[in-house]
């Protein structure tokens, strides 16, 4: 497979590529103290849907980091149209190009799972201010399954590890975060969620391989409906 799942996500330009969509993003941010002086970082920002929302809604300082060039171009185009500048940075979650103690809030919307998780968490902690908040929406393993099945899922999506809720708790704790709260969101998506999630910004060079990757993704989504879920993770530095 030449194009990975994430490459195809970028070529299709999927807008809200995390579970719960922009609706969940709005809900979890509404519970935080954010004003125009807040500094927020969105790691693995994809096409910039969340970064644009935060900038428009909160008028605060938003930085968006991404390591996929196609995603970056699409985010740059989207974010060039909004009134407040968003700082878009090419970089890896495992080596954040930011100084220590810089951000009030960091969002990871289905991103940590794809990275070297302990390394990323330690970087996120480094760049958060003391008492800064990490908000993650991340995949979880809901049931123990056959090792080969699990490996097939991990290999297809390119995640580094698929953790249970308890394992996430331990990983986040080991990275030194406190006040860890992990919650399950059981709400079904509404019309608006589906619209945001199915926002596409297509590249011109989408290959047949990408359509077959999309079909495999749809098959995994059906087959793993009760096996893979997600949680909202909130913790502080
Ligand atoms: C499932 S997508 C989610 C995108 C976006 N957060 C959203 O909700 O639409 C995962 C994103 O993380 C990015 N990503 C994966 N590994 C990364 C890494 N090590 N550093 C930075 N970004 C990464 C991918 O390129 C992709 O845009």
From TrEMBL:
Any one biological process term the GO annotation gives: methylation
GO molecular function, one term: methyltransferase activity
Keyword terms: Methyltransferase, Transferase
Statement: the UniProt record of this protein carries the keyword Transferase: yes
Domain Methyltransferase type span(s) in chain numbering: 41-135
Record-linked InterPro entries: Methyltransf_11, SAM-dependent_MTases_sf
Gene3D superfamilies registered for this protein in UniProt: Vaccinia Virus protein VP39 (3.40.50.150)
Pathway membership: Lipid metabolism; Phospholipid metabolism
PANTHER family given in the database record: PHOSPHOETHANOLAMINE METHYLTRANSFERASE, PHOSPHOETHANOLAMINE METHYLTRANSFERASE ISOFORM X1
Protein name as catalogued: Methyltransferase domain-containing protein
């Amino acid at each position: 497979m030449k194009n990975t799942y994430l490459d195809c996500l970028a070529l299709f330009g999927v807008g809200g590529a995390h579970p719960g969509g922009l609706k969940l993003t709005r809900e979890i941010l509404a519970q935080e103290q954010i004003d125009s002086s807040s500094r927020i970082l969105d790691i693995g920002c994809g096409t910039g849907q969340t970064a644009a929302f935060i900038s428009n809604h909160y008028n605060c300082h938003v930085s968006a980091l991404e390591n996929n060039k196609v995603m970056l171009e699409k985010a740059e185009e989207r974010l060039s149209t909004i009134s407040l500048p968003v700082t878009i940075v090419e970089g890896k979650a495992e080596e954040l190009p930011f100084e220590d103690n810089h951000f009030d809030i960091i969002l990871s919307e289905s991103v940590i799972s794809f990275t070297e998780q302990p390394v990323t968490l330690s970087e996120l902690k480094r760049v958060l201010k003391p008492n800064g908040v990490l908000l993650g929406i991340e995949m979880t393993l809901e049931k123990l399954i056959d090792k080969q099945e699990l490996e097939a899922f991990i290999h297809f999506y390119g995640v580094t590890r698929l953790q249970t809720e308890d394992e996430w708790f331990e990983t986040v704790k080991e990275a030194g975060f406190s006040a860890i709260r992990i919650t399950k969101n059981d709400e079904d998506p509404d019309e608006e969620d589906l619209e945001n999630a199915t926002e596409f910004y297509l590249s011109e060079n989408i290959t047949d391989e990408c359509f077959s990757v999309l079909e495999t993704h749809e098959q995994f989504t059906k087959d793993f409906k009760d096996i893979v879920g997600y949680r909202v993770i909130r913790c502080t530095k």
